[in-house]
Design a protein that fits this description.
The chain has 138 residues and is α+β, with helices and mostly antiparallel strands. The protein has helices at 2-18, 28-38, 46-53, 57-69, 91-112, 117-133; strands at residues 44-45, 73-78, 81-89. Helix 3 (46-53) packs across helix 4 (57-69). The longest helix is centred in the last third of the chain and has 22 residues, at 91-112.
């Protein structure tokens, strides 16, 4: 199991480092958070983001603070519940995100191009099986 986890982490680091560098430079966890925040048009709460990424709310807050300082994420009050703060991409982040996403996915595609389409489908199926059996949130 340790070998599997190490291999997955190595692949993700390779994808991150071989994608076209962003400005400002982003860490892999920040990239992951940006993808998660971008997936929710109405914004996402820190609690929901923590659950989705299996990271503590305190750690999420630290990563988000950095993204806020870079002008990529903004905090907005929830109109239905004043206790909730929603995280959203800023206009700057939105304008750069699609380009960044394409670069990141192109980099990932190059890593997995050694696999056939059937092997990729099989790998996705295996991950889906794990996700379903453990009720993992994507």
């Amino acid at each position: 199991m340790q070998t599997l986890i190490q291999r997955m982490m190595s692949i993700m680091r390779h994808v991150h480092h071989s994608s076209i560098p962003s400005e400002p430079p982003l860490s892999p966890p920040q990239v992951h958070l940006l993808f998660s925040i971008a997936s929710k048009q109405e914004g996402i709460s820190v609690k929901e983001l923590a659950e989705r990424t299996s990271v503590t709310p305190g750690a999420i807050t630290q990563f988000v603070d950095g993204l806020v300082e870079m002008g990529l994420v903004m905090r907005e009050g929830d109109p239905n519940d004043r206790r909730i703060v929603r995280l959203k991409l800023t206009e700057l982040a939105k304008s750069q995100f699609e380009h960044f996403r394409k670069d990141y996915l192109t980099s990932a595609s190059r890593v997995f191009d050694v696999l056939s389409n059937d092997e990729i489908k099989q790998l996705i199926s295996l991950f889906d099986k794990i996700i379903t059996s453990h009720d993992v949130k994507l």
